[in-house]
Amino acid sequence: MSPLQIITQLLLQNDEVAGLVGGHIRSFQAEQGLAPPYIVLQLAGGGDEQLLIGSAKYPDKRVSVAVISLDGVEADDIGNAVIRALGDVVKQTVTSAEGSPSEVIAHDVDVIESDSDYTDWSEDQTTVRRVIDFNVRWRNP
User: Fold this and answer.
1) How many CA atoms lie within 13 A of 25 on its CB side?
2) Cα(3)–Cα(56) distance, rounded to whole angstroms?
3) According to the model, what pLDDT value does residue 121 have?
4) Residue 127, pLDDT score
5) N or C terminus of the chain: which is more exposed, having fewer CB within 10 Å?
6) Which domains does the chain carry?
């Protein structure tokens, strides 16, 4: 399971965040022409612990959540909604939004806000970006 899939599902299943970005949450990059606001997720690092018997199979990955908007206040508001949506994720089971019944994609999910939260503008100053990093730990089903 990818931490990008886990964060995507958590944000899509949060009514406040999904409503603010119209469900436009993408991994790696947004398609050209997608109108802001939207969210782009990037994998920013992490690993797994090595035990005497091998991998702990309890990955700890860092995910950057980039809010893209035409307005700084809106980017800030959406970023705060993302923090609220992910701030209480402790030992949670995450399911896919697609299909019936929902499919379990990860167990024991913990999401912790990391030490990076910054804003910047596009080179042509038409869009603002707020980037917030989170550490994600989970066990695969």
Assistant:
1) 22
2) 16
3) 93
4) 95
5) C
6) 3-139 (3.30.2000.30)
Packing angle between helix 72-87 and helix 3-12, nearest 10 degrees?
A: 100
CA distance 70 to 79: 14
3-state secondary structure of 74: helix
Token couple for 22:
């119209």
| The pLDDT value given to residue 97 | 65
- Reduced to 3 states (helix: H, G, I; strand: E, B; else coil), residue 104 is strand
Give dist(CA 105, CA 72) in Å, integer. 34
Tell me what pLDDT residue 101 has: 64
Are 122 and 61 spatial neighbours (Cβ–Cβ below 8 Å)? no
Helix H or strand E encompassing 52: none
Q: Which DSSP helix (H) or strand (E) runs through 30?
A: none
The parts of the chain modelled with pLDDT lower than 50 are: none
| Residue 120 per-residue DSSP state | E
The alpha-helical segments, DSSP class H, found in 35-101 are 72-87
Q: What is the pLDDT at residue 30?
A: 93
Give me the residues paired with residue 26 across strands: 40
Tokens of 78: 């959406």
